[in-house]
Amino acid sequence: MIVRIAKCLFVLAVLGGAIPTSTLKLKFQAGRDVRGNSGLQFRSRYDPNANGGWMDGPQVDIHPPADMSWRTGFIYDETRGQRHWLVPNLMGSNIDEKVKPARHRFKYSDDGDGWNELVVICRGTKVRTVLNGIVVADWDGAGILDDAVHQRYRVGSRGHFALQIHRGSQVRIRFKDILVREI
CB within 8 A of 55, min separation 6: which ones? Predict the structure, then answer.
């Protein structure tokens, strides 16, 4: 299902059912000239009546611009009333190089085959993200993903996967080999 959200800033392709314990693996490709970001919502739900349509839940960031590609694999919470970084733990949407990981590997469309592999593993409240074989986040969201706000929107512990691209941004990104598996 593809959902076009009129008033919000993104377009989503919603994938799969509401699987609580799962692994999602996909490949994505972006050029060096990309401005803006994309993301992979997980354990999320679309509410067509909220703000002209809204996808609540956590999101793995995909950020091609070279100056901050290192944040790809970090986790941001798109849930209404939350909207902040979960990994790293930061309030708001701003992020600073102080949290840049020691190792990261982001490939552009002109690097070898140009495809990045992103893996998201969800078990209970634990979430692990792996980009090109490097663990970016290994996080236990107990007390956050299962709190009252996330329960109200039925996200965090279960929900859908969705691909995100912000409307109006200059993001040109391709996805392929998308595999969702219950574990």
Answer: 3, 5, 10, 12, 41, 44, 45, 46, 47, 78, 162, 164
Nearest-10 Cα torsion for 99, 102, 106, 110? 120
The overall pTM is greater than 0.85: yes
Residues 53-85 as b or e (16 or more Cβ within 10 Å = b): bbbbbbbbbbbbbeebbbbbbbbbbbbbebeeb
Range 2-182 has CATH code 2.60.40.1120: no
pLDDT in tens, 116-128: 999 999 998 999 9
Token output for 24? 């999602």
CA 135 to chain CA centroid, nearest Å: 15
Lowest mean pLDDT across 10-19, 85-94, 145-154, 172-181: 10-19
- Cβ-based burial of 169 (10 A; exposed 0-12, middle 13-18, buried ≥19): middle
Write out pLDDT tens, residues 52-69. Answer: 778 899 999 999 999 999
